[in-house]
Amino acid sequence: MIGLGFLGKAANTVFLLGLIVVAAVIEPTILNERALRNILTSANPLMIVAAGQALAMLTGGIDLSVASVMSLANVIAASAMQKSPEYAALIVLGCVLAGIGVGALNGWLVSYVRLNPFIITLAIGMAVQGLTLEIMNVPSGLVTSGFRLLARTAFGPVPVATIVIGAAFVVLATLLRQTPHGVAIFAIGGNEASARMSGLPTRRLKLAVYAASGMLSACAGLFLASRVGSGDPLIGDPYSMDSITAAVLGGTSLIGGVINLAGALVASVLLALINTLLNLKGISPFFQWIVKGAILIAALSLDLLRHQRRSS
Amino acid sequence: MSTSVESKQGWRLRRPSLRVFRLQFAVLGAIAGVLLLASIVAPGFLEVGHLLNVARQVSSLAIVTTGQVFVIATGGLDLSNGMVITLVTVVSATLLDGRDTYLVPVILLCLSIGVGVGLVNGLLVTKLRIPPLIGTLGMFGILRGIAYVYTSGAPKGAAPESLKMLGNGHLGIIPLAVICAAIFVPLGAAFLNKTTFGRRLFVIGANRRTAYLSGIRVDRTIILAYMFSGFSAAVAGLIVAGYIGVGSLSAGNDYNMNSIAAAVIGGTALIGGTGSVTGGAAGALFLGLVVSLLRFLGLSYSAQLIVQGVILAFAVFAQTQAGPERSS
């Protein structure tokens, strides 16, 4: 099943890459070094969250708190670094731990208390958003100049962060496919009850998955802090929906049991590219919401059609 | 572990009445608790005028929740209703622009926007088989885009006197909005509990396949539930437009989360098959009381968000503890 699905999934990724090439042909101005770097930089945070979202979806769940966790890490980093820039490294660590903490709370509620992941991550997200606004009410704060380099260093058109993220994706994919625990996560998504009856530690694994999603959201929030240079309590807002879109567009199924990390990576770039193109054409940013909503629905319909065909 | 491997789909129609009753009882207790707490920490909160004002704020939420309960009863969810409210607010305020001349056609237009959005939601969920939460979330994004493009991103228009009356006026000391809710909610409850259509929603939510095999037109019934949800959001939108007085782009922001929270607090299970409209209205009242008490005590919006999140989490938790059925 995994081997056979892989062919179909590769085709999906190739199709998305094809769309990027088409876009480049239509609008050659995006092909210069600076534009490419900008597109990749704006795709970076989405890539990170989409990976976490894809993991949650692999177990048949979802994480709607990613947006608030991103904002939380973002404002903690910006406000704490402004006060005590000498502890930048510790602050970054603290933000990541906060992300893991929220994720673990989500995971505990989903797996041990057995609450509906949609609603419980929504509720936790709401509370975390409140906490974030409590820390910082309006955009403010300042990150250290060293921390800003994180999002700003690049080899020609390729930001260093993109390379790091790519490498992390390879490690994550290998862990998922080559370790017993990784394969067990696939089993949970396929059929949780039978995974549990086969003696797999389903609850611990699900907790770990949500903790990972929280950690990745925090990393994405940190990346945005580095890129913008200051904090914004609502900066994560669009990412809950966008991360689902990127994951589904990349071939990860909402039904669970299927993940495509390479696809999520390429889909993130594609979404950033679409945003850039709409901006270049002078189309109102409000119109982009319509486009994004339509892409989400279209991607889902395609995903479900694919699954219907496979099962029939 | 005792249930079958595919789990979740059990025959649940016999028990929920007791279960929902128990949860509704809990809501009434919670409301009494809030009032008791208020009498200790903030006696001014309990003045009749102030309580009626809270009831006015709650009435639009109670109306939206009615539609949400219909959808949740089928095992679905409507996240787009908040944006329907915003869109209706914007459309009615800009088209009427303070005059009553075209009141009836504009109201009909607004109601059909709600019903139309519900129709699209229903089609997405049934014909394309998109999970309701994501499908209606996508719809939310699309509607937000439309509302912003339509107004170019700034509040626009003005509500006419008649709508202002609806949102802000009183009959004696009772706010008109409360009267609207007092008509809408019981009608919704009767519709859900006493008609064949309403009972079918429960059967579909309890077991879709059984519903199909017993001859219910599942897709059509679900689509109608979403259309009703859109309709109730549009009705609430007209009230909100009258209260705010302009076409505000943030008018409906909190309604999707809050309507789900109110429904859940009122004893409607998210897995479908159960649902109580009156419970939902009680849940809305509870939420409204808590939020306005927090505001009365001078707590910030951020603190309110935290409390609301915790309440929603706790309500979902209480649900799993209250019923005999526990999924997988």
- Count helical runs of chain A: 13
Please give the largest β-sheet of chain B: 2 strands, antiparallel
What structural category do the secondary elements of chain B indicate? mainly alpha
Percent of residues in beta strands of chain A: under 5%
Q: Just give the CATH class of chain B.
A: Mainly Alpha
N- to C-terminal separation of chain A?
15 Å
Number of helices of chain B: 13
Q: Total number of β-strand segments of chain A?
A: 2
Keywords:
A: 312 residues; mainly alpha; ABC transporter involved in vitamin B12 uptake, BtuC; 2 strands; disordered N terminus; B: 328 residues; 1% strand; globular
Structural commentary:
The complex is a heterodimer of chains A (312) and B (328). Chain A has 312 residues and is mainly alpha-helical. Chain A has 13 helices and 2 strands, in the order ααααααββααααααα. Chain A has one domain: ABC transporter involved in vitamin B12 uptake, BtuC, CATH 1.10.3470. Chain A is 77% helix and 1% strand. The N terminus of chain A is likely disordered. Chain B has a single domain, classed as ABC transporter involved in vitamin B12 uptake, BtuC (Orthogonal Bundle). Chain B is built from 13 helices and 2 strands. In chain B, strands 1-2 form a two-stranded antiparallel sheet. In chain B, helix 2 runs parallel beside helix 7 and helix 2 crosses helix 11. At the A-B interface, helix 5, helix 9 and helix 13 of A face helix 5, helix 11 and helix 13 of B.
List the helices and strands and how they pair.
The complex is a heterodimer of chains A (312) and B (328).
Chain A: H1 2-26, H2 33-58, H3 66-83, H4 88-111, H5 117-135, H6 145-152, E1 154-155, E2 158-159, H7 160-178, H8 180-190, H9 192-197, H10 202-228, H11 239-249, H12 261-280, H13 285-311
Antiparallel strand pairs in A: 1-2
Chain B: H1 16-41, H2 48-73, H3 81-96, H4 103-126, H5 132-151, H6 161-168, E1 170-171, E2 174-175, H7 176-194, H8 196-206, H9 208-213, H10 218-244, H11 255-265, H12 277-296, H13 301-322
Antiparallel strand pairs in B: 1-2
